[in-house]
């Protein structure tokens, strides 16, 4: 987890906002019939009148008083008339709105200005406007991990490992990964002229790419040995339900005998989408999730689908939040599926977005409901406890090196300890891992440097540190090191009737 | 400095808000003639019309638009109608005001609710309602440092070193110093029944004290050897000017030959007060400070006093902020006084308070002007550079021990390094100070424990840590360790014509 934020791969845009999306009921219900919108999403429209009457009762108290309005107007006036620096109107107004929402002390409630609202919409729909290349930062260079299938980047002939050095004449040197990504992205229909360095090609390559809407795939399916299927969901976005069903049908047509649903590091998404996916596994009429409003009134959402005749398990970790937890809870309690991995994040609230109410392209995402598991458990700040707890190897959590100074023999620091963990994870054994740079540590560093064709100094300089981190990331991505996946396969093999 | 915040003495109330007071022009000018108020404080009322016309020009742009007002009202309504938890009206409104001010990104601009506004007023006037005892926390007990002269605490017979164990029947055990202080304080006229333990007296003593308005002395004068006077100013509060002049006159009547004005760790205060004090030393008509408004218009404040025939120096450190810097700048540039010590904090803005405008007991403190030194230097984020730079001994900056674990031989940590600095400062020499707990470090700890009558274990447990910290605080308060003061005396002795 710690690794991820700082060094690992970043989709062009996606991921920037992903951690802020968590079980959002995506819509702007017409004010004031808020609850009806939930009701319609949950398919319980017969309750609409009932929930409306509750809103009605609060309506009188909800209006801001003239006295309060005047206090806010006075503050506005003092700032615009007297503050030392002249301030944009929007800065003050957005400040007021941010301040009101911040006073709720709820990390999941926030205001988004026009630009943020647009990014949020892109993020929640897992689409954005750009060229469609997954990029990463390596040794200060922007490197293509892979072009997205069917994207303008792929069609234009961008390859994995290409280094992007400039966009429309602007050099990317010295930018952070996010800054570079912002230069590459742009509105649909506009051009990105890229200058690219490709291994084996002498001169830089010039490519002109017309940006388009890019869909980021949120569902990844594989058939493993023994007809065990694995479907990874990275986010519950607009099209995730359709894609999931397509992939599931495909696996079933190939003789699926057991299914692993992998929601590790999935931050959540849309409530209706997770409900749709759960409906593939929960018997008709059984609850998937209960939604509770501010007055404590509970509303169950029941499955309209049917159960499967093959076993299903769910893979979770600390990064499985919100919609992922709804899925884990529903399958655990209403299907009897085993949840395998780590205790989940623990987010038991539902947010609603209010774009229409603001009417100017900005948006408010606000916590409006709690959700409970089918048996009525509120897992907020607790998470879903796995039936089978499995931690990944320690090196999955290693801290990136600070690269503030070279590391060398006879010194002692947290960085040395992290480096020792990386050396051991990549097969270069050291005698200690306590952060003391021993002779054997130096010997291991030399062997590593020889293997990756760096000068054999025994000192961890920033080039060695980069290579070490890349080697560890490779190990982390190697399925044979994925102890949680192994446990899931083992459990399914027990359950499958051969 | 680091020591101060966490462990050292705290006046009852004062100090809690002191760091937020910085050159405040204390008043609520009638809206919209803001600038006239500054003009009147600076004695330049002939400029009033001129500056008003500027405000007038902005007035049209300053009013909040209906569209913005409606957006704020909508947000208010969404929160009070739909947010998962019910929220107090004031929470939302104060949130809006805090948010507008926070958007300015100015640490010196803030909203104060009724309670905070009252505390601020007390703080800026260096007065509060309570019993009038300076207390500290020692080994978890609230200990009286000294009763304030003329206070109810002194009249009731409270002594230095008394331990206060309960207030009106409520035990103070387990409270922080601030929590205990809040119990001891209270409105004028109310009773505080204290239970006190006094060394040498068997049973606890019961004292009933009627709380009153307490003035905290912000001016401390002493005559040193050679008729060198020292006046320390701890804050520029309402009465500070009068008290300063009284103490100065008193020193002069005793044959003052040179003066040290000590504004170290003085966070500032009222602009008119520092101007009054500077007027004692700056020749009539010479500038003390220039004030610049948002349109870049500068207004000098000139002295109405006269210069002195004895030399004056100013002692500063990193904690000398705002009004203290106005004083240092004025004396340095308009009198030619030497500034001695460390570069000052660097705050070059003036705040105005707007209580009348809000009209409900709350208050907004907002940055409205810049101030510049007589020669037109804006020292914001730079500070005043001393003519003679003198740092205090290293142990003045030692970090308090974390007391998370006992410290013992053959371990290594930042805590051990701090402890070694404390041992050396108090005369228990160690061979190293790099944080490695050597044999000699253990020997020094044993000697220290013997001297302060603790069990001689050679291990720094929390009792030993407390005693070590107290010993260092004693050294810090010892004038013979005050290298900056020594340099000031030396400089004055050079300048004084004997």
UniProtKB/TrEMBL annotation, chains A, B:
One of its GO terms (cellular component) is outer membrane-bounded periplasmic space. SMART domains: PDZ, TSPc. GO terms for molecular function: endopeptidase activity; serine-type peptidase activity. One of its GO terms (biological process) is proteolysis. Signal peptide: none annotated. InterPro entries: ClpP/crotonase-like_dom_sf (IPR029045), CtpA/B_N (IPR055210), PDZ (IPR001478), PDZ_6 (IPR041489), PDZ_sf (IPR036034), Peptidase_S41A (IPR004447), Peptidoglycan-bd-like (IPR002477), PGBD-like_sf (IPR036365). Pfam families: CtpB_N-like, PDZ_6, Peptidase_S41, PG_binding_1. Residues 121-187 form the PDZ domain. It comes from the Bacteria. Gene3D superfamilies: 2-enoyl-CoA Hydratase, Chain A, domain 1, 2.30.42.10, 3.30.750.44, PGBD-like superfamily/PGBD. PROSITE patterns: PDZ. Keywords: Hydrolase, Protease, Serine protease. CDD domains: cpPDZ_CPP-like, Peptidase_S41_CPP. The keyword Calcium does not apply. Belongs to the peptidase S41A family. NCBIfam families: prc (TIGR00225). This is PDZ domain-containing protein. It comes from Paenibacillus albiflavus.
């Amino acid at each position: 987890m710690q690794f991820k934020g700082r060094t690992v791969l970043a989709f062009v845009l996606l991921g920037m906002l992903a951690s802020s999306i968590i079980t959002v009921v995506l819509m702007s219900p017409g004010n004031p019939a808020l609850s009806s919108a939930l009701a319609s999403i949950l398919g319980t429209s017969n309750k609409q009148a009932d929930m409306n009457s509750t809103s009605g009762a609060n309506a009188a108290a909800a209006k801001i008083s003239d006295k309060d309005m005047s206090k806010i107007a006075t503050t506005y006036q003092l700032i615009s008339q007297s503050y030392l620096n002249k301030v944009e109107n929007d800065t003050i107004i957005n400040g007021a709105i941010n301040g009101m929402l911040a006073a709720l002390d709820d990390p999941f409630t926030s205001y988004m200005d026009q630009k943020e609202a647009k990014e949020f919409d892109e993020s929640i729909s897992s689409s954005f406007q750009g060229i469609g290349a997954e990029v990463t930062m390596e040794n200060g260079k922007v490197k293509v991990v892979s072009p997205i299938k069917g994207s303008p980047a792929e069609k234009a002939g961008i390859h994995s490992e290409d280094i992007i050095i400039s966009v429309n004449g602007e050099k990317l040197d010295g930018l952070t990964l996010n800054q570079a990504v912002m230069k590459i992205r742009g509105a649909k229909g506009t051009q990105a002229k890229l200058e690219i360095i490709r291994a084996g090609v002498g001169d830089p390559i010039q490519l002109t790419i017309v940006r388009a809407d890019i869909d980021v795939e949120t569902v990844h399916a594989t058939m493993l040995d023994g007809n065990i299927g694995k479907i990874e969901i990275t986010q519950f976005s607009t099209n995730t339900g359709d894609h999931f069903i397509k992939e599931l049908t495909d696996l079933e047509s190939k003789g699926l005998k057991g299914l692993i649903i992998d929601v590790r590091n999935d931050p959540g998404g849309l409530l209706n989408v997770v409900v749709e996916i759960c409906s593939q596994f929960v018997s008709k009429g059984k609850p998937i999730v209960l939604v509770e409003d501010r007055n404590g009134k509970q509303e169950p959402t029941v499955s309209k689908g049917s159960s499967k005749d093959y076993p299903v398990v769910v893979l979770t970790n600390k990064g499985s939040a919100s919609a992922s937890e709804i899925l884990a809870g529903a399958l655990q309690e209403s299907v009897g599926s085993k949840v395998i991995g780590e205790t989940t994040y623990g987010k038991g609230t539902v947010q609603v977005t209010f774009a229409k109410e603001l009417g100017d392209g900005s948006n408010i995402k606000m916590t409006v409901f709690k959700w409970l598991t089918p048996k009525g458990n509120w897992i907020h700040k607790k998470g879903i406890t796995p039936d089978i707890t499995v931690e990944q190897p320690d090196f999955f959590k290693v801290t990136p090196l600070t690269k503030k100074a070279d590391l060398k023999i006879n010194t002692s620091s947290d960085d040395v300890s992290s480096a020792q963990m990386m050396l051991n994870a990549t097969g270069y054994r050291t005698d200690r891992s306590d952060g003391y740079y021993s002779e054997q540590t130096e010997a291991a560093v030399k062997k590593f440097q020889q293997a990756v064709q760096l000068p054999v100094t025994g000192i961890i300089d920033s080039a060695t540190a980069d290579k070490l981190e890349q080697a560890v990331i490779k190990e982390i991505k190697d399925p044979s090191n994925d102890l949680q996946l192994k446990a899931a396969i083992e459990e399914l093999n027990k359950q499958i009737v051969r």
